[in-house]
Specification:
It is a single chain. With 876 residues, the chain is of the alpha+beta class. The chain folds into five domains: 238 residues, BirA Bifunctional Protein, domain 2 (2-Layer Sandwich); 147 residues, no CATH class; 118 residues, Elongation Factor Tu (Ef-tu), domain 3 (Beta Barrel), CATH 2.40.30; 157 residues, 2-Layer Sandwich (Threonyl-tRNA Synthetase, Chain A, domain 2); 110 residues, Diaminopimelate Epimerase, Chain A, domain 1 (Roll). The chain is built from 23 helices and 35 strands. The strands form eight sheets. Strands 1, 2, 3, 4, 5, 6, 7, 8 and 9 form a nine-stranded mixed beta sheet that branches. It has a six-stranded antiparallel β-barrel with strand order 13-16-20-19-18-22. Strands 30-31-32-33-35-34 form a six-stranded mixed beta sheet, sandwiched between helices. β18 and β19 form a beta hairpin. The protein is globular, with a radius of gyration of 33 Å.
Length: 876
């Protein structure tokens, strides 16, 4: 193996192959964004996706499992961010190789398999291995002695929690046995369990956790079945098998070093080594997070991603200021990992475009941040640097506190790190605001029981709008009912089969009616949802007749409503492809809502759409509708579908054999190809949609836009109302359709003239309002007007005030608005943007911007408003 140039790739394959030969089922890595686990910010270990299997909340699908799991530790309790680059083994992104057993085997077989893989398959010298066990776990110590023939000096009993593993304050836990590798006497560090154990000589390469307990409120309770959870970091075992003592000296990082050298035209050396390592680690985390749809933002996971990007850019800046290179490293990272995480290939354009945008935005503020730090240092009256300013630099500009500390240390200044940590703690709640937790339905214990005992609901709705089905479960007030009397409220029904589509993938659930087998009306089904295991829940507000389990009932969907939903869902697919063709293939779906009234589509794009872009998008969608493209529906493995060009949505959970919906037109008039993984209901051909109209385009958050649109009858209703409105306007203006615009422009011109006259009457120019300032004259006045008028007022004042600064203020809705204008003779000497920032800061506001000759800003109303005139005289 040591001669293999891509050792990490070989290790992955050999690990999976070994355990598959030993009766394990391979399961793909779960996403970095945990599903249904509000306790975690990111997936940080191999066992996360199996948590409910360990606790018994869900029945395991397999007894023995092998995985290679993507992991990230950069936020929350498990956070290695600050140590990256400074040690040989800390990383934000890493891969965990793991084998698991859920009642299939326990300690003896787990230890035997680990030993066999390391010694026989990986050919590691057993004399270099050290084993640790939990002090009370005599069974593991006995098994290790039997399997390895090790003496007591090579099997160390640990009394601390280092050998009792748990995910956190609650959850599965148990004693563990760790396998260490001795890097040799030339490396500093002590044996496990000693004071010097944190050195680099003895490296933990594999942890075998024997899950026997679940921790609840500090108590340990036996798990329903004994389980095994093991984890071996790919980065560490790759270093070992590459004869290296540092993870960064392996094929998992060296290719990135080469790319950085090319991009920066700078060789790696002892002065920039740490920066190279941080960049090489962080770019992986950036690519992996963005590949799952996470975008930089100021909260939740996006907040962590933004911190990682900014930390990386700081390291780039140290090597070469103002270089924008991270987006150029994306292809090499994707190339390295796409063999194992096949979805990455389709995300390259998305990652590059959005990463470059974030780089360019932050590069503009990075130098500003350095200038601000220098300015704050110059303003100090003593050697103590304010913790609040250090946090502001960290939170707003991405400066890690260690960088601030280094600069302060060079200048022999102090920072109260305890006070800083206190401020950080208060702000940490931000990180949890957008975690994806379990839905209320999935958290209820009764639904966990359903997943174990109820069969999957057979969905008939692709072909049928009614069915005769057997009622298998009645749920009311979180209890199962065998029979239910009439006129009960808030009832949930489960049938063996159903034509009702359950809410998922952005499409709302079906509604309809329930009848007895002989046609008597039972009640209205108001919504349909589903839980894990594809069990469909039918919600009835009131049942008009008694209900009995195992009786047959007729289910009939509201077909008129369903057809409208189908129109909108298929139109969403056409819209998605049109956006990609017109705006670029980096556009990705971020969310959607499809109901019977409209469709809403959120997508990644940094700029507001122009009118001509919206028209082109509408035209392309409508052309595809008129082309009457037939739907093609097939089921295939997710990996094969994506390789074949299908689009998979971020964060969506697909079955092993997923449904692929295609609308493909290869005609010369309209070359169009929409292929998506989708379980929703669709039209048989696009002509059924009728027509498509975008009704709004707006911003949802940074880098995410939203389009709302309507189809079919709703478009007809909209056009009819617009025509009626136009007729009403014509009547009011007493004009024809041909010259209606001319008439409106004429009226607008008259109104503008009247407004100008009105503004002039509001301005009472007086030299008494000119303030004396050591540097220049300042004309200062407060108006009781809409803040938008202040710029116009400053232009009017300039006609009489020939030299100086004009400062105008307006207060509205508890906010102070300020406009500063510079006369022409001073425009090269005085910058209005700098002045507005000074004024806004004095008023305890933030920001402010504009041009050199005119700028504006705002602040909350405070007592300082009354002190502004004095500030302008003395300090501006």
């Amino acid at each position: 193996m040591q001669n293999f140039s891509d050792i990490s790739s070989r290790i992955r394959k050999d690990f999976i192959s070994f355990f598959k030969k030993n009766d394990h089922n391979e399961i793909s890595s779960s996403p970095l964004i945990p599903r249904n686990d509000p306790s975690l910010l990111f997936t940080n270990s191999g066992m996360v996706q199996f948590k409910n299997w360990f606790t018994g909340d869900e029945k395991p699908k397999h007894e023995n499992v092998v995985t290679i799991q993507k992991c990230l530790r950069a936020g929350g309790k498990h956070n290695d961010l600050e140590n990256v680059g400074l040690t040989p083994r800390h990383h934000t992104f890493f891969e965990m190789l793991g084998n698991f057993s859920f009642g299939g085997y326990f300690k003896e077989i787990a230890i035997e398999l680990a030993w066999k893989l390391l010694i026989k398959e990986f050919q590691i010298n057993k004399k270099k291995l050290i084993i640790t066990v939990y002090n009370d776990d005599k069974e593991s110590a006995r098994i290790w002695k039997k399997v390895s023939n090790f003496s007591d000096s090579q099997i160390i009993r640990i009394t601390s929690d280092d050998n009792f593993w748990s995910m956190g304050d609650s959850g599965p836990c148990g004693p563990c046995s760790e396998i260490f590798y001795d890097n040799g006497k030339n490396i500093t560090g002590g044996m496990p369990g000693t004071e010097k154990q944190d050195g680099d000589r003895y490296v933990e390469i594999w942890n075998l956790v024997f899950m026997q307990y679940e921790r609840k409120q500090k108590e340990l309770k036996d798990l329903p079945i004994k389980c095994v959870d093991t984890g071996m970091g790919l980065e560490r075992i790759t270093a070992l098998l590459s004869n290296k003592t540092n993870n960064y000296e392996t094929d998992l990082f060296e290719y990135i070093f080469s790319e950085i050298e090319i991009c920066l035209n700078k060789k790696i050396d002892k002065n920039n080594l740490t920066a190279f390592r941080i960049i090489s680690d962080h770019i992986k985390s950036i690519c992996m997070l963005m590949s799952e749809g996470v975008l930089p933002s100021n909260e939740g996971r996006g907040y962590v991603l933004r911190r990682i990007i900014r930390r990386t850019l700081l390291q780039v800046y140290k090597i070469q200021p103002r270089a924008v290179i991270l987006n150029k490293l994306v292809k090499s990272v994707v190339s390295k990992y796409s063999e194992f995480y096949f979805e990455l290939d389709k995300r390259i354009s998305f990652i590059e475009k959005n990463l470059r945008n974030e780089e360019e935005k932050f590069s503009e503020t990075l130098e500003t941040g350095l200038v601000l730090l220098d300015k704050e240092i110059k303003n100090l009256n003593n050697k103590d640097f304010p913790a609040e300013i250090a946090f502001k630099l960290y939170d707003t500009y991405g400066f890690p506190v260690d960088l601030t500390q280094n600069i302060l240390c060079e200048k022999k200044l102090d920072l109260d790190i305890d006070q800083y940590e206190s401020i950080v703690k208060k702000n940490k709640s931000k990180q949890k605001e957008t975690w994806t937790g379990a839905s209320k339905i999935n958290k209820e214990k009764i639904f966990f029981q359903l997943k174990d005992n109820e069969k999957q609901t057979v969905f008939l709705g692709y072909e049928n709008n009614y069915s005769l089905s057997t009622l298998s479960k009645i749920i009311r007030d979180n209890k199962f009912e065998g029979n239910l009397g009439e006129n009960k409220k808030d009832v949930i029904l489960i049938f063996d089969k159903t034509p009702f589509y359950a809410e998922s993938g952005g499409q709302v659930g079906d509604t309809g009616e329930l009848f007895t087998s002989d046609g008597k009306f039972v009640g209205k089904i108001n919504d349909t949802k589903k839980i894990d295991g594809d069990i469909f829940l039918h919600f009835i507000s009131t049942n008009k007749l008694p209900l009995k389990v195992n009786e047959k009932y007729n289910l009939k969907i509201d077909n008129t409503r369903r057809k409208k939903i189908m129109n909108n869902h298929s139109a969403t697919h056409l819209l998605h492809e049109s956006l990609r063709k017109i705006l670029g293939d980096h556009v990705s779906q971020k969310g959607s809502l499809v109901n019977d009234e409209k469709l809403r589509f959120d997508f990644t794009y940094n700029d507001q759409l122009k009118n001509d872009q919206i028209k082109k998008i509408e035209k392309m969608v409508n052309l595809s509708i008129r082309s009457n493209i037939s739907i093609n529906e097939e089921f295939m493995k997710v990996k094969d579908a994506i390789k074949g060009g299908a689009i998979a949505l971020f964060g969506e959970k697909y079955p092993e054999n997923a449904r692929v919906i295609s609308f493909v037109d290869k005609s010369k008039e309209n070359s169009f190809s929409s292929i998506e993984l989708c379980g929703g209901t669709h039209v048989k051909s696009t002509g059924h949609i009728g027509s498509f109209k975008i009704v709004s385009e707006s911003s949802v958050s940074s880098g995410v836009r939203r389009i709302e649109a309507i189809t079919g009858e709703e478009v007809n209703h909209l056009l009819a109302s617009k025509i009626a409105l136009l007729d009403e306007i014509k009547d009011m203006l007493r004009t024809s359709e041909n010259n209606i615009i001319e008439k409106i422009l004429h009226l607008k011109s008259e109104i503008d003239e009247l407004r100008k006259e009105s503004k002039k009457s509001q301005i009472d120019y007086s030299e008494n309002k000119i303030l004396s300032n050591p540097s220049y004259k300042i004309y200062f006045e407060r108006f009781e007007v809409n803040p938008k008028e202040l710029k116009n007022f400053s232009d009017l004042i300039k006609k009489d005030f020939k030299s100086g600064l004009i400062v105008l203020m307006s207060i509205q809705e508890k906010k102070v608005s300020i406009v500063i204008s510079v006369t022409k003779d001073l425009s090269q000497k005085v910058n209005a943007v700098e002045k507005i920032k000074q004024v806004v800061q004095f008023l305890d506001g933030k920001g402010g911007g504009g041009r050199r000759d005119m700028a504006q800003g705002g602040a909350p109303v405070s007592e300082k408003v009354n002190e502004l005139e004095h500030f302008l005289k003395e300090s501006l």
